[in-house]
């Protein structure tokens, strides 16, 4: 029997078996060696086929119990091989024994850095390709068996792409699933929009019962970032940020796959809700929710920055009749910040409180709803005007059934009402004057939801009530205006609007009634009635309206206005304005009007022009003087205009084509302003919907001509063009329009032109202009602007001007940005230092002798000559320092006639809004140096400080204006002044002069410290000098003085103390030889007008006389031919004294006694201030004569010891008559006239003086005493 397994018997079979075993071993060996390569290619090919995309695997390592895959990628074929899924590494630990035993074939599966890319186009369509999967019927089968013990996902990422949007990436996701007796799931996302999310679950694999927990750490959302996320619609709201955080807990019942039957609890908070436009909206809002046995509840509550919010909602989700209820409350919500958050501005401030509730019930495919909303607006201010509370109530009730013929059924009801606004608040807000009264309103309406788009079914009614309205002396009777919408027709009814004048005792004094002088019984009555069909609104034949106006007993400015009434009616498409004639003073105004309204189809068929209306008017003559009186009464400011105006015009409106035609002309004759004649002018105008033109011209405007042309296309004023020109207008008449009086005579003419384009905004405005003056002069002095050019372009304005003044040159350059200037002008208060205008004003070589006649009409400064240079500049740097302008000035070749006063003086200053600062003043002055600085406060009448100084001044050059003084003075001097400006200006002066010579009197040095003040109110000057010194004649004069000067009168107390002044050293090249002078001089004055009002006294001692070179006395020695005397030594003493007073313009010399070389002279008399003298001079010689014995006897000790006999003294005259000479001196001090008077007796004073000079003071006193007794 054949046995195939018996290989020994069948060698061929044995060889076959050996071959098969060897081949199988080789195959197994080859499979083991190429397993990785085979597996990689198998995964790529099979995976690509199954997934429909390209699968790429970089490397696979298959071990006995592990499988390692690296760089596994799935690429989108339809998207140019872009990456769909990429896994960096997959590690699989197998367990074949566990798989056979429990179905868990893998101990662990680890995915490292998996990344999923989801792609969408610009419209949001999904672009990724994923294989389709089918769900088995046992998708919910239990128990749940997982083929692994552990699944780990580390550092997973999800990236969402959309065309033209920034990708959204979620990174750092980790997942751990442990499948043993319990399924434990733990996960974490470390980068969820910058936040973290933790979640975990523990489930039973048998019935999936267990619990879950998810925690969201604070997540900050920013609207600017969210707007860039994929799949979100583009939106633009103010930058808003909010922070969210919360947690969710869930309990999973056994075997229940309907999530609505699971138990859940949610709680969290919204914090730091911030908007860039409104600021912080809410710091924290708490929310929580729950789901229990199909009943869901949500609660939200929190405090907003501008209010509070609270919401509650409950819904039953698992019942046969699902229903939901909710309440909503917003309280203390500020309306304006809320509107700003929504991105728009409203001029309304209010606090809103809103309460709402709603209910939804779904039953038998029918959704019933009911909502009620009540809102109250309080503390309302509209553009700053307070408005009473507004209450609004909204109710909506109905049902919705998609399968029903009328899907939506119900009604919407709205009601609102307010007591309105007090007109007094409106008048105060807009400065309209005093006003009283109140406007209130109420309105209500219903809208059926089933006919929501049919206006015919709408119903509404409203009314406005006005009560106790009065303003500017006018009273409006109580009225009610109503409007209603019913059956598709709007009706407006406002009847018997009556305006009358309040009684005089009840109206303010400055009201318009008093200004215009309306009559007390004036009355205006009007009414309005109109109906408009909504459905057939274009059918104008169905429009009906009528307006009645009646004015009675009206007078303006005390002149009655004729009573008139008119009616404007619209009926059946016809417009009619009844003719109206109005008379006031000599002015007559006639108005007529008519029109036609028709439908476009009817008009075209009939060949008519369509709907139109026209009005004609004629007014004149109108007295400009009357217009000025009315304007002056209303504004309390005079308007001195005169002339007459005639005007006619017509307006025609094509209501079908929405076009119109208008035109007219105005003639002004004999126009004048403030007495200045302007001339005549004619103005014509025409306008259509395509544009308007205006032309005005005059050949007698201010002595010249003018023309104005303006055109506007498409009635767009922003593109208007204006051309104006002025030729040879008298400058004096032009200035007289703005000033009632001109302080200086003006001459010459002015011409110019201006052209404007594109008036819409600053950037598009284009303007050019020029101006010039011809033969212009001020007070006969030429002052011309040769060229002035104005240019406006690209939002900037520039001005350039060049001219001449005072035989010098003027140049002006200025530049500004119009928008900046406008913004600056709208600020309150205006800050001049921020004025955005920059430029340079430069004046060169202005002649002083041409400008001084304006500043000094008297001509006192006419000999002054020189040239002035000046510049004022304002730049951006100047403005940044808060300055208005920086100033530089200089003066050159300052002369007085031909005498040079200064070669150059220059300085710089800065002009502030409230002060002027002189930084420095430097230059030459009268041959010396000049310096100074000052600061003046411009906000007060006079305030500030100053410091001035002049050193080494040539006094002769300084005295050049006074020729007589300039020829007789020489030397140098300095002055320093420092003080403060104010209501009382004070100053300290320090005067110093060296080597001064005046009228040949030599003064070595002068120092005068002076304190002075000036009171502006009284114009009183006060001065005080203490410690003033004058060094001359090797002596010193000490000066002390104080006084005041006001109203041309001076008061003073002055004391001059003379100490050891050598008269021989007083004159240059000459010698008075009056010896050494010492003494005191006192000068007083009380309200002195001239030098004649001065009073004073003086007492001066003369010693060491060398000669008698005193006017009137210096001729005595030659006249008397004196010889050398011999005698006692005391007779040779030389000296003298002077006593006197000053009063009435005369110097009274009471006694002047001089003794010199045997001659004794006694002088008394007067001298005027102009040098005229009248002296009595008595001279006593010491030649031998009858008196020698008497004198010898008088010198004996016996005579000196006892009283002298009276007879001896009485004989003195007789004894001295041969030695005494009497002389009368008259004429002037420069040319005295001497007259001898023989036989004149000695006076008592002369006798005393001679005896005192000869015998001594004791004998003189004794003699005069005895003589006095004998006289008695």
What would you say this structure looks like, in words?
- With 1272 residues, the chain is mainly beta.
- Among the domains are: 1-31, no CATH class; 34-128 and 146-180, no CATH class; 211-334.
- It has 22 helices and 65 strands.
- The strands form two sheets. The chain has a 63-stranded mixed β-sheet that branches. Strands 28-29 form a two-stranded antiparallel ribbon.
- It starts with 10 loop residues before the first helix and ends with a helix.
Would you kindly provide a brief summary of this structure?
The protein has 1272 residues and is mostly beta strands. The strands form two sheets. The protein has a 63-stranded mixed beta sheet that branches. The chain starts with 10 loop residues before the first helix and ends with a helix.
Which short descriptors sum up this protein?
1272 residues, mainly beta, elongated, Putative assembly protein
Architecture blueprint of SSEs:
Layout: H1 11-33, H2 35-51, E1 54-62, E2 66-76, E3 82-94, H3 96-102, E4 106-120, E5 150-162, E6 168-179, E7 183-192, E8 195-203, E9 210-222, H4 223-226, E10 240-252, E11 263-275, E12 279-292, E13 295-304, E14 307-316, E15 323-334, H5 335-341, E16 348-363, E17 366-382, E18 385-387, E19 390-400, E20 408-422, H6 423-429, E21 435-448, E22 459-471, E23 474-476, E24 479-486, E25 489-501, H7 512-516, E26 523-533, E27 544-552, E28 554-556, E29 559-561, E30 564-571, E31 574-584, E32 587-596, H8 600-606, E33 612-623, H9 624-635, E34 641-654, E35 659-673, E36 676-688, E37 691-701, E38 704-713, E39 721-730, H10 731-738, E40 746-757, E41 766-778, E42 781-793, E43 796-805, E44 808-817, H11 818-825, E45 837-847, H12 848-855, E46 864-874, H13 876-880, E47 885-896, E48 899-911, E49 915-925, E50 928-937, E51 944-954, H14 955-958, H15 963-966, E52 969-981, E53 984-998, E54 1001-1015, E55 1020-1032, E56 1035-1046, E57 1049-1062, E58 1076-1088, E59 1095-1103, H16 1116-1120, E60 1135-1143, E61 1146-1156, E62 1159-1168, E63 1172-1181, H17 1187-1194, ...
């Amino acid at each position: 029997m054949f046995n195939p397994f018996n290989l020994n018997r069948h060698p061929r079979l044995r060889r076959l078996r050996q071959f098969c075993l060897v081949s199988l071993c080789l195959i197994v060996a080859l499979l083991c060696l190429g397993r990785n390569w085979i597996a990689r290619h198998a995964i790529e090919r099979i995976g690509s086929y199954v997934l429909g995309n390209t699968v790429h695997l970089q490397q696979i390592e298959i071990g006995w119990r592990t499988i390692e895959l690296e760089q596994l990628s799935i690429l989108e074929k339809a998207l140019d091989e872009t990456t769909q899924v990429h896994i960096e590494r997959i590690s699989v630990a197998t367990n074949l024994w566990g798989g056979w035993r429990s179905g868990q074939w893998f101990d662990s599966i680890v995915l490292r850095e998996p990344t999923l890319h989801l792609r969408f186009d610009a419209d949001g369509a999904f672009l990724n390709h994923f294989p389709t999967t089918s769900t088995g019927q046992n998708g919910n089968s239990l128990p749940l068996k997982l083929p692994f013990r552990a699944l780990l996902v580390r550092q997973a990422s999800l990236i969402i792409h959309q065309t033209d949007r920034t990708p959204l990436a979620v990174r750092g996701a980790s997942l751990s699933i442990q499948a043993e007796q319990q399924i434990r799931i733990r996960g974490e996302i470390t980068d969820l929009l910058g936040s973290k999310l933790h979640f975990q679950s523990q489930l039973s694999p048998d019935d999936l019962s267990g619990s879950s927990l998810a925690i969201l750490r604070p997540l900050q959302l920013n609207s600017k970032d969210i707007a860039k996320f994929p799949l979100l619609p583009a939106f633009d709201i103010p930058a808003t940020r909010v922070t969210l955080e919360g947690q969710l807990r869930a309990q999973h019942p056994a075997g229940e796959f309907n999530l609505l039957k699971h138990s859940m609890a949610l709680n969290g908070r919204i914090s730091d809700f911030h908007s860039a436009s409104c600021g912080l909206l809410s710091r924290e809002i708490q929310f929580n929710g729950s789901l229990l046995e199909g009943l869901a509840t949500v609660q939200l509550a929190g405090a907003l920055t501008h209010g509070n919010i609270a919401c509650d909602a409950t819904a039953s989700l698992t019942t046969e009749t699902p229903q939901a209820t909710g309440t909503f409350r917003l309280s203390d919500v500020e309306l304006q910040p809320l509107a700003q958050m929504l991105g728009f501005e409203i001029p309304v401030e209010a606090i809103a409180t809103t309460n709402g509730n709603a209910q939804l019930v779904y039953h038998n495919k029918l959704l019933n709803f009911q909502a009620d909303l009540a809102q109250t607006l309080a503390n309302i201010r509209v553009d700053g005007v307070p408005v009473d509370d507004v209450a609004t109530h909204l109710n909506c009730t109905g049902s919705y059934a998609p399968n029903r013929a009328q899907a939506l059924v119900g009604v919407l009801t709205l009601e609102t009402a307010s007591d309105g606004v007090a007109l007094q608040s409106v008048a105060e807000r807009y400065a309209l004057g005093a006003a009283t009264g109140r406007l209130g309103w109420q309105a209500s309406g219903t809208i059926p939801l089933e006919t929501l788009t049919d206006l015919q079914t709408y119903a509404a009614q409203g009314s406005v009530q006005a009560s106790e309205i009065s303003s500017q002396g006018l009273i409006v009777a109580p009225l009610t205006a109503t409007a209603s919408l019913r059956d598709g027709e709007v009706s407006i009814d406002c009847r018997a609007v009556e305006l009358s004048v309040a009684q005089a005792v009840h109206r303010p004094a400055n009201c318009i009634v008093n200004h215009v002088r309306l009559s007390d019984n004036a009355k205006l009555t009007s009414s309005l009635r109109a109906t408009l069909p909504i459905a057939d609104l274009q059918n104008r034949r169905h429009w009906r309206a009528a307006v009645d106006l009646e004015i009675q007993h009206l007078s303006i400015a005390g002149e009655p206005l004729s009573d008139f009434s008119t009616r404007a009616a619209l009926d059946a498409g016809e417009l009619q304005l009844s003719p109206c004639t109005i008379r006031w003073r000599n002015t007559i105004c006639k108005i007529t009007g008519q029109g036609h309204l028709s439908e476009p189809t009817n008009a075209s068929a009939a060949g008519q022009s369509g709907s139109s209306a026209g009005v004609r008017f004629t007014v004149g003559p109108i007295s400009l003087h009357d217009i000025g009186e009315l304007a002056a009464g209303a504004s309390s400011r005079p308007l001195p205009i005169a002339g007459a105006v005639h005007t006619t015009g017509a307006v025609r409106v094509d209501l079908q084509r929405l076009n119109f035609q208008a035109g007219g002309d105005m003639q002004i004759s004999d126009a004048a302003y403030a007495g200045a004649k302007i001339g005549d002018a004619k103005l014509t105008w025409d306008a259509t919907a395509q544009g308007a033109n205006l032309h005005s011209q005059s050949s007698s405007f201010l002595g010249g001509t003018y023309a104005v042309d303006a055109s506007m296309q498409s009635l767009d004023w922003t593109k208007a063009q204006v051309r104006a020109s002025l030729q040879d207008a008298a400058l004096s008449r032009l200035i007289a329009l703005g000033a009632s009086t001109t302080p200086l005579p003006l001459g010459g003419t002015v011409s110019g032109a201006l052209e404007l384009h594109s008036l819409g905004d600053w950037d598009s405005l284009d303007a050019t202009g020029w101006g010039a003056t011809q033969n212009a002069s001020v007070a006969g002095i030429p002052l011309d602007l040769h060229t002035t050019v104005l240019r406006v372009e690209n939002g900037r304005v520039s001005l350039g001007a060049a001219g001449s003044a005072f035989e010098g040159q003027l140049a002006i350059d200025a530049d500004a940005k119009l928008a900046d200037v406008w913004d600056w002008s709208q600020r309150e208060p205006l800050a001049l230092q921020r004025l955005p205008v920059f430029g340079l004003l430069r004046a060169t070589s202005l002649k002083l002798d041409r400008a001084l006649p304006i500043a000094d009409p008297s001509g006192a400064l006419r000999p002054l000559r020189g040239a002035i240079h000046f510049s004022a500049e304002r730049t951006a740097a100047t403005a940044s320092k808060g300055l208005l302008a920086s100033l530089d000035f200089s003066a050159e070749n300052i002369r007085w006639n031909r005498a040079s006063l200064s070669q150059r003086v220059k300085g710089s200053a800065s002009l502030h809004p409230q002060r002027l600062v002189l930084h420095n003043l430097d230059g030459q002055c009268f041959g010396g140096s000049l310096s100074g600085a000052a600061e003046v406060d411009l906000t007060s009448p006079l305030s500030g400080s100053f410091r001035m100084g002049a050193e080494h001044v040539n006094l002769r050059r300084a005295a050049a204006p006074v020729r007589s003084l300039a020829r007789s003075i020489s030397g140098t001097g300095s002055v320093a002044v420092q003080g403060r400006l104010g209501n009382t200006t004070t100053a300290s002066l320090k005067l110093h002069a060296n080597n001064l010579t005046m009228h040949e009197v030599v003064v070595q040095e002068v120092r005068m410290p002076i304190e002075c003040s000036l009171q502006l109110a009284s114009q009183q000057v006060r001065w005080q000098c203490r410690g003033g010194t004058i060094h001359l004649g090797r002596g010193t004069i000490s000066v002390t003085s104080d006084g005041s000067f006001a109203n041309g009168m001076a008061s003073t107390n002055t004391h001059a103390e003379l100490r050891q002044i050598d008269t021989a050293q007083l004159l240059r090249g000459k010698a008075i030889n009056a010896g050494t002078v010492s003494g005191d001089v006192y000068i007083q004055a009380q309200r002195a007008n001239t030098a004649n009002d001065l009073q004073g006294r003086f007492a001066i001692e003369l010693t060491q006389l060398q000669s008698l070179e005193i006017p009137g006395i210096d001729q005595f020695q030659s006249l008397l031919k004196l010889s050398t005397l011999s005698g006692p030594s005391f007779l040779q003493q030389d000296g003298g004294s002077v006593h006197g007073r000053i009063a009435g313009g005369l110097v009274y010399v009471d006694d002047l006694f001089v003794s010199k070389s045997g001659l004794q002279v006694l002088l008394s008399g007067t001298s005027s201030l102009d040098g005229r003298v009248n002296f009595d001079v008595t001279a006593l010689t010491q030649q031998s004569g009858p008196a020698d014995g008497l004198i010898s006897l008088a010198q004996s000790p016996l005579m000196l010891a006892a009283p002298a006999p009276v007879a001896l003294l009485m004989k003195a005259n007789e004894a001295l008559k041969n030695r005494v000479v009497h002389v009368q001196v008259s004429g002037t001090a420069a040319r005295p006239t001497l007259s001898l008077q023989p036989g004149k007796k000695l006076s008592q004073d002369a006798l005393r003086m001679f005896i005192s000079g000869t015998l001594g003071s004791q004998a003189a006193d004794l003699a005069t005493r005895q003589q006095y007794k004998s006289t008695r």
